[in-house]
Amino acid sequence: MSAQVQTKAAVSVAEMARMCGLSRSRFYALIGTAFPRPERQPETDRPVYSEEQQKICLEVRRRNCGIDGKPVLFYVRRTTSAPSKPKTTKPKLAANRGDLTTLIDGLNALGLTVATAAEVQRVTDQLYPSGTANIDRGEVLRAVFLHLKRQNSADKVG
Q1: What DSSP assignment string belongs to 100-133?
Q2: Dist CA 58 CA 52 (whole Å)
Q3: Closest Cα to residue 135, out of 146, 145, 143?
Q4: Which residues contact 89 (CB under 8 A, 6 or more apart)?
Q5: Helix (H, G, I), strand (E, B) or coil at 35
Q6: What is each CA distance from 59 to 19, 24, 35, 66, 131, in whole angstroms?
Q7: Could you give the CA distance from residue 68 to residue 32 in angstroms, rounded to a whole number?
Q8: Neighbour tally for 4: CB within 10 Å
Q9: Which of 72, 5, 3, 1 is nearest to 32 (CA)?
Q10: Do residues 151 and 115 touch, judged by C-beta distance below 8 A?
Q11: DSSP-assigned beta bridge partners for residue 31
């Protein structure tokens, strides 16, 4: 909370939570102990924070000390605009691990039990260099099965 937050004549509870940099649920949990209870508008019975209460809430947030005098720990709220760390996993293997297992299971069901994961990965990469994301799983299974079957046919084995 390094930036100075401008107060208004009245704000809703959700806006007060935003001004304090907290989620609504966390802010509601702290009402009555760390933060003051909001006033109610007489016409609508809607809870609002007056300008004076806003200053109190912002001071509580700044000092980490509630209105009851007890210290309050606040976590930094996550925002979606913050840059995320790039993932270090191998995208090709991580994305295709489930597909690879499914392919091996399908090949085993078709009677081709000698295919290894590395072999299936190699054939898949050879047949589909741009990936299998938009290709029907049955078509991929068929192509890999036929390729491996041709590769290991009896007339080619010594």
Answers
A1: HHHHHHHHHHTT-----HHHHHHHHHHH-TT-ST
A2: 10
A3: 143
A4: none
A5: strand
A6: 11, 18, 10, 9, 55
A7: 8
A8: 7
A9: 72
A10: no
A11: 35
pTM: 0.48
Q: What is the 3-state secondary structure (H, E, C) of 39-85?
A: EECCCCCCEEEEHHHHHHHHHHHHHCECCCCCECCCCCCCCCCCCCC
- For residue 46, the model assigns a pLDDT of 95
For 20: left if phi > 0, alpha if psi spans -120 to 50, otherwise beta; the answer is alpha
Q: Are 100 and 75 spatial neighbours (Cβ–Cβ below 8 Å)?
A: no
Give the model confidence (pLDDT) of 77-100 as tens digits: 566 665 666 666 555 544 456 678
Joined together, the tokens standing for residue 121 give: 């990965």
Rounded Cα–Cα distance for residues 104 and 40 (Å): 64
Q: Measured between alpha carbons, how far is 119 from 149 in angstroms, rounded to an integer? A: 12
